[in-house]
Specification:
heterodimer; A: about 550 residues; TIM Barrel; Oligo-1,6-glucosidase, domain 2; Immunoglobulin-like; about 15% strand; B: about 425 residues; alpha/beta; Spore Coat Polysaccharide Biosynthesis Protein SpsA, Chain A; 9-stranded mixed beta sheet; 19 helices; globular
Chain lengths: ~550, ~425
């Protein structure tokens, strides 16, 4: 099958991120499930994405949206059975869509049998699978990630009368990766899912696997050692499977997670994301250029993963204090929009439902170096509900149509796992897949078109990038190149029309062909190439020497 | 439109790239390659520290430097934006340079700046000198009042040594204060701030050909703001080092430029000050002006001699400028020995008002009138130094305030002489 042929498939992917719970409910219990998701695969194929990243679907007390796993090798019965998953996987593969699942390495739920055993007595063989201490002074000074809810990285266990280490919620005890048995157990989990056929894993909370006194307990060499060991075994047993790192760190720190192409295949570029928003709000390319200048080279077989929004808050950890204040003022002036160090909003409301800005940001996402991830619902401009608590406001049911429960479920509305978005602007009556399918000018139709264009030219996924430096700082322009394939991208980041002169001397003689309308533009000559752009307009030009 | 003929295509192209800005700091240069980098760095630092979110530009207007001043600016690497303090500007800090002519002219430089400010729709602007040792805090102090509040003209205040700035203390400040009614101490300065609104208003004036504007445009901007009812204020900057000896214009040229400009402003804006009575203080940001002790300058006997000689040699000219009784009193004090010499405040005030009126009526060539004032100023300066050689800073300040009040008290005399036919 063609899917098996390309070991670098992740470089050419356009990933669609979703939670099975949110997408489609097939059995009318108010919660999305694998059968419902399988029924919607045609939609995703039509959208043009070629990989799905599934948020955790394992058995879990669901105190952290499934990131508190209590059984790694099963499916939460609410979402279906393991057979339902296998059916979904086969159906996705038949549509040439890969599937990436979550692997939460760092911690389990406190309801996981491993932890239950570990806390049962200090002599239990599983005791050393977690990180224990008689005091809460160990690893002093290590930062607390969930500032809004946690006072310490240690939590008291009244059963075994000692403290256990947790970098996230106190009901998520960290596993002890110094213990070979833990590493072996995690490899067993990976084997289980690889044998079923998943194409890759998104590894959660990677920097925190190993703890050492006197350090920040982040990005330690021993953590890299764990990753290298898993990667080696994966490559050997399952070539072509992909590992994606969640490491919310500066690019220079994340670079180490690529190793010598012997750790992760891909990693999220967290700092780029807020800077794309900032650049559009500031109407200045500086934030994007600065962070990409600080981004180190990575091995040829590796790739950055870039995104605009996801299931979490728009994290502002990788920005300066001044930048964070600006982001809050610009995008979260209502305190209810903020959580932890971030903003719990979706793309469309952040852009004030301005199609031009939504398109510009998607244009950036799909034309910059890296594998893009589209968060479910953003392709139709879904809104959020900042009053739902935690980050649930960006995890509301997918809006399929303007009918009963937005076409998401046949259950009574009260039974839905989450209220639908129902306000006049973003409500499912006005924002839904069916209505946008009917208009070739809808955001959905536009998104399909731009994804299709991206997928048609490998230069977007694998090409180099050269930034141009026009004196007009409101314009971000770059050339992507892969062999003889060249694409010029010109973005107007501002709310006003702009003229820009581009130094395209290196491409003298080429004809720019606008990629959406396929219109020819004047041949590039000796003089600076003059373009005018409407507010927030962007061009993708194929440069051809004919 | 003024800017149509003023701005070259290359400059316009640069401005197009900058687009609309919030803040503009301009730095006029002429052969300042040695000091301009420090000034640019201070401006950039100020932007990085104080205006991280704002749209900003640094504008260099050059009067035809031959020492690579503009190249020095263009080749400067922007410091990684205050990275040492974890502070960085969110936006691009633009640098634009242009040459407005082949010879330096403060008026032409300012006109170019105003045209750029108008096109870029800058909300707040400042002019700074490349020859001054700039502190980055100065820039913020000059920009903030027009940016954050509703002020249109921002005059600087400095820490000065006791005997620094005596022309302003004894003539420019008290006279402008009495006439225009606002207590702005430093109307003639190398640094000042202004709003975009005032920039546009001044740009549209058809006065750029006047020598007074070309030489010292800053006071004209201040008076324009005052007479247009715009809000003015003062911002304390800090210690202002005097220029190195011999680097600036001599006293004759200084008086021609500053006093000439002041008299020209009296005339240009006469409809606005005739009926104005009393004076008002203006809001001041930071400390009021400060004085630091300083030893008295060496013997000023030569000044006194130049005064006496001038009164004698210029008698004919002075008799056409001054009223007979005023001239008679000046002749009289010119005759006393140096140790007993004193130029009384009332006589000094009447003398200046009569000079201003004669300038208005052009009783002789205006330049001759200004040059004739020079020896009299030397006499007044000698008198002032004799009197305050040993006095405390407080005593000197009190005396200066008394002089200001004397100017105010005699303002009706100025109006009378101004309106008189001879």
């Amino acid at each position: 099958m063609a899917l098996q042929d390309n070991n670098l498939w992740y470089k050419d992917a356009v990933i669609y991120q979703l939670h099975v719970r949110t997408f489609c409910d097939s059995d009318g219990n108010g919660i999305g499930d694998f059968r419902g998701l399988t029924n919607k695969l045609d939609y995703l194929q039509e959208l043009g994405i070629n990989a799905i990243w599934l948020l955790p679907f394992y058995p879990s007390p669901l105190r952290d949206d499934g990131y508190d796993i209590s059984d790694y090798t099963s499916v939460n019965p609410t979402y279906g059975t393991i057979d339902d998953f296998k059916t979904f996987l086969a159906a996705a593969h038949s549509r040439r869509i890969r599937v990436i699942t979550e692997l939460v390495l760092n911690h389990t739920s406190d309801q996981h049998p491993w932890f239950q055993e570990a806390r049962s007595s200090r002599e239990n063989p599983k005791r050393d699978w977690y990180v224990w201490s008689d005091t809460d002074n160990k690893y002093h000074g290590v930062r607390i990630i969930f500032l809004d809810t946690e006072m310490s990285n240690w939590a008291w266990d009244p059963i075994s009368k000692s403290y256990y280490w947790h970098r996230f919620f106190n009901h998520q005890p960290d596993l002890n990766f110094d213990n070979p048995a833990v590493r072996e157990a995690m490899w067993d989990v990976m084997k289980f899912w690889c044998d079923i056929g998943v194409d890759g894993f998104r590894l959660d909370a990677v920097p925190y696997l190993v703890e050492r006194e006197g350090t920040s307990c982040e990005n330690l060499p021993e953590t890299h050692g764990v990753i290298r060991e898993l990667r080696k075994r994966l490559d050997s047993a399952y070539p072509g499977k992909m590992l994606l790192a969640e490491a919310n760190q500066w690019p220079a720190d994340v670079r180490d997670y690529f190793g010598n192409a012997d750790e992760f295949h891909m990693a999220f570029h967290f700092p780029l994301m807020p800077r794309m928003f900032m650049a559009v709000k500031l109407e200045d390319r500086k934030p994007i250029i600065e962070i990409l200048e600080q981004t180190p080279q990575i091995p040829d077989t590796c790739q950055w993963c870039i995104f605009l929004r996801n299931h979490d808050e728009l994290t502002l950890e990788m920005v300066t204090d001044i930048e964070r204040d600006y982001m809050y003022d610009a995008f979260a002036n209502d305190k209810a929009m903020r959580i932890n160090l971030g903003i719990r909003r979706r793309l469309a409301p952040m852009m004030e439902n301005d199609r031009r800005r939504i398109e510009l940001l998607n244009g950036l996402l799909l034309s910059m170096p890296g594998t893009p991830i589209i968060y479910y619902g953003d392709e139709i401009g879904m809104g959020d509900n900042i009053y739902l608590g935690d980050r649930n406001g960006v995890r509301t049911p997918m809006q399929w149509n303007g009918g009963w429960n937005a076409g998401f479920s046949s259950a009574d509305p009260e039974r839905l796992y989450s209220p639908l978005i129902s306000n006049p602007v973003y409500g499912y009556q006005s924002i839904n897949v069916d209505s946008q399918r009917r208009s070739e000018h809808s955001l959905l139709s536009w998104t399909k078109s731009v994804i299709q264009t991206r997928n048609s030219f490998r230069v977007f996924s694998r090409g180099s990038i050269e930034f141009l430096s026009p004196s007009n700082h409101r314009v971000l322009a770059y050339v992507r190149q892969l062999g003889e394939e060249k694409v010029l991208v010109v973005n107007n980041l501002s709310s006003s029309a702009q003229a820009v002169e581009l130094n395209l001397q290196s491409y003298k003689g080429h004809i720019p062909i606008e990629m959406f309308g396929r219109n020819l533009f004047p041949r590039i000559g000796e003089l600076p190439y003059l373009l005018t752009l409407a507010p927030y307009q962007f061009f993708w030009f194929r440069l051809r020497r004919i | 439109m003024a800017e149509d003929i003023l701005l070259g295509d290359d400059f316009l192209r640069q401005l197009m790239s900058v687009g609309e800005v919030d803040l503009l700091v301009a730095i006029p240069t002429y052969n300042n390659a040695g000091t301009v980098a420090q000034a640019i760095q201070a401006i950039e630092d100020s932007y990085q520290q104080n205006f991280v979110r704002d749209r900003v530009v640094i504008l260099n207007v050059d009067g035809g430097s031959t020492d690579h001043t503009t190249e020095t600016i263009l080749n400067m690497n922007g410091r990684k934006a205050g990275a040492h303090r974890g502070i960085t500007s969110l936006r691009t800090v633009h640098r634009v340079t242009t040459q407005y002519g082949r010879t330096p002219s403060q008026g032409m430089a300012l006109r170019t700046v105003l045209a750029a400010a108008d096109l870029l729709r800058a909300r707040s602007c400042a002019i700074v000198s490349p020859a001054t040792t700039l502190d980055s805090s100065w820039i913020a102090s000059l920009l903030r009042p027009a940016y954050r509040q509703d002020f249109s003209f921002v005059a600087p205040l400095y820490t000065r040594t006791k005997f620094q700035g005596l022309l302003a203390r004894n003539l420019l400040y008290p006279m402008s204060r009495a006439v225009f009614g606002l207590r702005i101490r430093e109307m003639y300065s190398d640094e000042w701030g202004f709003s975009g609104r005032l920039a546009t208003q001044c740009l549209d004036q058809n006065l750029w050909g006047d020598e007074a504007v070309r030489a010292r445009p800053e006071a004209w901007m201040a008076v324009t703001a005052i007479c247009s009812g715009m809000k003015c204020c003062q911002s304390f900057l800090g210690p202002k080092a005097p220029p190195p000896a011999g680097s600036g214009p001599d006293i004759v040229e200084t008086i021609r430029q500053t006093v000439g400009n002041l008299f020209w402003c009296f005339e240009t804006f006469q409809d606005h000050w005739m009926d104005r009575t009393g004076t008002e203080s203006v809001p001041t940001f930071g400390s009021d002006h400060e004085l630091t002790p300083e030893d008295a300058p060496a013997s000023q006997e030569k000044s006194f001699e130049l005064f006496r000689t001038g009164v004698k040699q210029l008698d004919d000219i002075l008799s056409s400028i001054l009223r007979p009784d005023t001239l008679s009193q000046i002749r009289k004090i010119a005759g006393v020995e140096a140790g007993k010499f004193r130029f009384e405040a009332e006589l000094w005030v009447r003398t200046l008002y009569e000079f201003a009126a004669s300038y208005h009526r052009t009783v002789i060539a205006r330049d001759h009138i200004l040059q004739a004032l020079v020896p009299l100023y030397r006499g007044q300066l000698y008198s002032f130094l004799q009197e305050h050689r040993a006095s405390s800073l407080e005593e000197m300040e009190a005396d200066s305030e008394a002089l200001c009040l004397e100017f105010e008290r005699h303002k009706p005399y100025l109006i009378e002489r101004w309106k008189a036919k001879n």
